[in-house]
């Protein structure tokens, strides 16, 4: 049987103040979708930042419901930030069966849709089926899968052009007490995953044109980013979101126009979590 999970589809920056997150990411030079309202049972709304092969979702928890309880509780307990990663699949129902045969447990698939304003003035629909991995099996944050039934209304060309020249998610970085062991636990969730070990950490590749996971001991991450920045990220979530760009010069121009200070890093320039929805945002 073929493992159904082929990469990372998108990441979720979650919080209770969606207006604030929206304003921050527009100032950072991103093009955002109009606000999408999810069905009342989900109790959430979002903006998306569409990239070439993946995207960032700004998710606002508007009210607690049975369906969003894990996310609501995560934000209440651990603060806003990058709490969740969504994986690529073709078919949620089939994925649940195949993963079960592979010894990987999931929850029940959930299907929903939301309205999407289109460039010609009409309204389309974006339809999805999602499937959660069990929280107790996931080393960091929340992990689930998404079947895009209407990708043509999600990856809209006008939404994929950004003033900061962003093109994709390069990597996610998180603090782990035992990076090598946790990387091994993570690797089983993707078809083509591989693990590379380094001093104080481990990396997990997740597929073709898919973001990398870097799991690090706290001291290792502090060698790369300020400790107070790490402290300001969501506890138990991801501390760093790396975004690939075409032009670092245009990134810096966007930040300068917005009056946003950045910090030079070994790989690019980073912005403090207080200015990016609770995650260290690094342009590379």
Automatic annotation (TrEMBL):
<dbReference type="InterPro" id="IPR037523">
    <property type="entry name" value="VOC_core"/>
</dbReference>
<dbReference type="InterPro" id="IPR029068">
    <property type="entry name" value="Glyas_Bleomycin-R_OHBP_Dase"/>
</dbReference>
<dbReference type="InterPro" id="IPR025870">
    <property type="entry name" value="Glyoxalase-like_dom"/>
</dbReference>
<dbReference type="Pfam" id="PF13468">
    <property type="entry name" value="Glyoxalase_3"/>
</dbReference>
<feature type="domain" description="VOC">
    <location>
        <begin position="7"/>
        <end position="141"/>
    </location>
</feature>
<protein>
    <recommendedName>
        <fullName>VOC domain-containing protein</fullName>
    </recommendedName>
</protein>
